[in-house]
Every structure is written in C-alpha cells, then in structure tokens.
Amino acid sequence: MPKVYLLDYVAGNVRSLVNAIEKCGYVVEWIRSPEDVPKAEKLILPGVGHFGHCLSQLSAAGFLPAIRAHIDAGKPFMGICVGLQALFSSSAEDADCPGICLIPGSLDRFDDSVKAVPHIGWNNASCPTNPTLYGLSPDSKYYYVHSYKYPYVKGELESHGWAVATGTYGTETFVGAVAKGNVLATQFHPEKSGVAGLRVIRSFLDGSGAKALAEHLPQKSNIAAELVPKDGLTRRVIACLDVRTNDQGDLVVTKGDQYDVREKGSDRNVRNLGKPVEMAKKYYEQGADEVTFLNITSFRDCPVADLPMLEILRRTSETVFVPLTIGGGIRDTVDVDGTKVSALEIATMYFKSGADKVSIGSDAVIAAEEYYNAGKTLFGNTAIEQISKAYGNQAVVVSIDPKRVYVPKQEATRHATLKTKFPGPKGEEYCWYACTIKGGRETRDLDVVELTQAVEAMGAGEILLNCIDKDGTNSGFDLELINQVKGAVRIPVIASSGAGNPGHFDEVFRETTTDAALGAGMFHRGEYTVQQVKDYLAGKNLVVRKFEGEF
Ligand code: 1PR
Hints:
Strand content: 15-25%
Number of strands: 27
CATH topology of the largest domain: TIM Barrel
CATH architecture of the largest domain: Alpha-Beta Barrel
Radius of gyration: 23 Å
Helix content: 25-40%
Bound molecules: ligand 1PR
CATH superfamily of the largest domain: Aldolase class I
CATH class of the largest domain: Alpha Beta
Structural class: alpha/beta
Largest sheet: 8 strands, parallel, barrel
Number of helices: 16
Number of domains: 2
Distance between the termini: 18 Å
Shape: globular
C-alpha cells in the first residue's frame, strides 16, 4: 500500500486520522524527528490544541526548517486544523510565538459576545472560484472545532495565488481551507467529516486535487461576486449510547428513565438495547453528527488498560468518521495493582483508541466545589485543566446530571433560580438545578450556573447538559434549564434528556440557543431514526447535514 507520513510531535488524538487515511487505501508512517522529514514524499501535519503549544513543540524539536524545506521542494503537504493555522505568521492565541510564515497574516479569535466559542460543528468550505477544490463540494458540510481563525477578506490570499474555501459562523467569514501548488490546508477536520472529508483526504493522497488545481489556477479577475455569506453552521444532532455490563457480563447499550436502567419486572435485569459498535455505525449511517458513549458504570474492578470502552472505541473509529465522545470514569484513580493513574492518562488512552473528546461528570462537580472553596482559584491540577492543556479545550466536555429543586420564592435559596412555567408539587413557582454525582445517586449543594461557570474557567470546551427529571420521559427537552445554562456560559451547550420525537428537536432549536441536541432512547427503541429527525428539521427550514452514503 502507498505510504503517507504523519508528523508526530505532540500527544494528539490522531487515531481517527490514521483510520481515515487507511480507509483511503494508504498506510501511515510516523515522522518522529526532523531528520526523517526528507524521506517523506507526502507529509501531513495534524494539529491539535493551542497554537503556541503546537508551534513551540515543533520549533523546539527542530521541525520548522524541515517542514519548510519539504514545502519549498514542491512535495505534497497537508496541514489540518492547527496544522493550517501554523502556516500563517502568527495567532492572537499566542502572540509571542511565530508561525511557519508561509502565508502572511495573523489569526484572531471568534467574537464570543454573540455566539458560542469554540465554533464546534458542521459548516461550509466553499470556494466560489474552484467549487471542487481538492474534492470539496458546495453541497457538503465539514466538521470544525476551533476558537481562532483567519478572517476572510475577499481577494487577499487569492492575490498571493491561494485558492480559498470559506465557512461563515454568525457573521464572521473565515478561511476553511487553502490550497496552492503542492500545499493543502484545512481548518476543518476531514477525518471527522464523514464521506465529504474522506474525499478531500483521498484527493490529497492520490494527487488528483493538486493536479486539478494546477489545471484550474484561480485568476484574480474571476473571483465570483458573492452574495453576503450566510451562517453555514448546521443544527447538530447527536446520538448517545449509555453503555454498561449487564448481569450476564456483556457490554450493552442500555437506557433508563430518570437514570434507572433496570427493567420494571421482578427480575430487574439491566435493559439491553443492543451492541455498542453496531449501533454507533447505524447512527453514523443515519446521519448522526456525533456519537457519544457514556460508560455509566465505572468498571472499577478491571485493570485500567483493559477498560472495555477502549475496544469499543477502536472498533467504532474504524467505520464511523464523525466525532466520538467518551465519558464515564475519567478521574484520578488507583489501578487494581495499586498504581496511581491520572485522569490525563485515562483520557490519553481514550484518545489513542479513537476518541475525539472526553466527557467528565462527577469529577467536574468535585473540582468545581474545590474551585469555589478556594475563592475561585485555579491550581492547574484538575482533570479538566490538565486534559484541556494537553489536548485543547475542544477535547473536554463536561457532562452534567442536574435535578430540579423547587422553592416557593427566590430568597429561599442562595442558588440561581428561575421562575418556572411548571410549578412544583406544592405550587412552588421557582426552581434551581442541583448538580449530582455518581450517575445521579448523590445530590450536591452546587447549582448548574456555578458548575458551568467553574468548568468554563478551567478550560472545558463544551457542556453536555442532561436533566434527570426529563431523562427517558419522551416529553421534550427542559427548555428552562437549557436557557439558564446558555445564559451563564459562552462555550457551546448540547441539550440532552427528554427527546421523544423529531418535533422536540425543532422545539429546542427554536426556543433556546442550544448549540446541539442529543437523543438516546427514541433512537435505541427504534421509534425514530436520526435521519427522520434531520428530515423534519430540514422541512422546518433548519439547516442540517445529510449522510452522503458509502465512501
Ligand atoms: O461521573 O464522570 O463517571 O460519568 C458518568 C457518566 O454516565 C455521566 O456522563 C452520566 O451522565 C452518565 N450516567 C451515569 N448513570 C447514568 C444512568 O443513566 N444511570 N446516564 C448515566 C446518563 C443520560 C444521558 C441520556 C440522556 C438522553 N444518561 O446519557 O442519554 O438523558 O436520554 P433520552 O433521550 O432517552 O431522554 P462520571
């Protein structure tokens, strides 16, 4: 099989990229020192996390001149995400750290005063002068996750000979991909962009993208006059699989109501709704924008290296080319042989097995309590801080399991209350949401506003907002809870718990500013498919991404 060389310079969650390359019929060889770069014919620079962290690692290891020499020699080069950003001169993310300076210009941050940042989700990469640039399609969507971007100014990069594809988030149009001669760079993750992304990788690897570009050099004069670009971000629909071992010892997808996953009969078996890997693939093929696995029991008795979810991730990531999140048990722990294992080490195992994000539940609540007890001081030692520092904050989701607590009036509690349309059993008109740990078994004196603001300060990139009262009820999302949390933080929020039909997704997207919505039971029980939800949303004029078929 033909080879492609991947630059291995930081701990990165590159398993999905390796899987995508293999799916295109190539094998990956690793470049681990600058001396190895000249042997690469085709070189890929994957980028994760922080611009300064990435560039300083590359620089300290002596890679920058070697990469530059590879590009200057006219050999094929592809940069992904921070790998695109690295080609520019600098970034506001770390003003002291210079880039590779192949493209003059400095990246800036998305404006978070009117929208969630990071920009997470499926957006355009459209190039009016060259619509099929490197296999791109104006009808496809691509998966982005980033806070910094190069702002698009029409004609600027084109005047230096670059073909440019753009996306628009809110009112900000940014560079989604650039190509010139032997160089292709994408701000989006092609390896996580389904079939649309695999086409881009293949056109880089087989040389067809560069060939077509050479035959169709953009002319300054033919940059099409565009209409004002529209926000291209789609409504994200996520399928969630709660996974645990059943009483027979098999790992199964389960689903309860209000977190009780056992059957109602006398034997109280764990409800078995199917096999995790097969179900994840099914949802990918129905058009799920992401798949989340929650390990709802911590498998405490097995060695950490044998965590059953690792194998599930490895197998799923071979066939599912959308982002995979894994949650459950991510905390500092002690292995069965007495060895201490940090949350970062557990997260690293998950990333190496194919996860793109990890989701932290109980440990985030404890960390938030300590944060407030220390007068809102951060010491850098929490799981959230350590994992987001190593992998970028987009890789850290905090999963919250709140419960409604009713109070007769606002003054009855120190917590952030809201006036509810659904009064409590004694007619209470106010409520607040208490955070829980251990899968809802223990309620803490911490509300969702406190928790979400604390974890945002620690570097969490996204909130997975469950609701124990709504879980498994099929009665729709808790819109009041979602609006309260959206008003408290700037990072994206995934609404979860209560989805029972496609109309509930439409409702949550219209009546809240949620960034994504998640369903579980309604998909597992076969009541609706992800595709039906998306068709329904499209019928209501909400922009969604469609599954593009087999690669
Ligand atoms: O605390 O870091 O070990 O993480 C444990 C994780 O497992 C947490 O994210 C927690 O939400 C989850 N979890 C623990 N126990 C349960 C349980 O059900 N007994 N499941 C559980 C959480 C809620 C969602 C569900 C939505 C949508 N399940 O995952 O998918 O509520 O359901 P619906 O659409 O059917 O209403 P840690």
